[in-house]
Design a protein that fits this description.
The chain has 148 residues and is mainly β. It has helices at residues 57-66, 113-116; strands at residues 5-11, 16-19, 25-38, 44-56, 72-85, 91-104, 129-132, 140-143. A hairpin with a 5-residue loop joins strand 3 and strand 4.
């Protein structure tokens, strides 16, 4: 079985972070993804989907420091559904992405120490290449196989 979600979207609001007595923390936020298509009349339409994201522990701490409303982010995790009861005792269900990887896709501002020390790559870091030497050939770059 396989449960993996990969999203790239813009944050709808600043992450909401809760700290627990044991020192653990959780960050929750939503991101919007857009799909563009032509309708029957040939007009371009945009469909926006909102996705609830949950991050735990040190990932929640980094998200709290680095992501703000409107930021573009890469999210990877698993889809989960939780059951809960509302104030009237009715069963409710919430589907969300429990993230294990979050990367900011915002450009770094030069001279910003906070961004440089964040551990998040900038949009320019996504296309890093490495070099390898194959016997009898010249050194050639190997492209990263990132999903975006």
């Amino acid at each position: 079985m396989f449960n993996k979600v990969t999203l790239i979207g813009h944050l709808g609001k600043d992450p909401e972070v809760r700290h627990f007595e044991g020192g653990s923390m959780v960050a929750k936020f939503s991101i919007a993804t857009n799909e563009n298509y032509k309708d029957r009349t040939g007009e371009w339409q945009t469909k926006t989907e909102w996705h609830d994201i949950v991050c735990w522990g040190s990932l929640a701490e980094r998200v709290e420091k680095m992501l703000k409303k409107g930021n573009l982010a890469f999210i990877e995790g698993k889809l989960t559904t939780r059951k809960w009861q509302d104030k009237d005792g009715n069963d409710r269900y919430t589907t969300e992405v429990v993230s294990n990887l979050v990367k900011s896709l915002e450009r770094r501002e030069s001279g910003s120490a906070e961004v440089a020390d964040s551990g998040f790559p900038s949009i320019d870091d996504r296309f890093e290449t490495t070099t390898t030497k194959t016997p009898g050939t010249e050194t050639k770059p190997i492209e990263d196989d990132l999903p975006f």
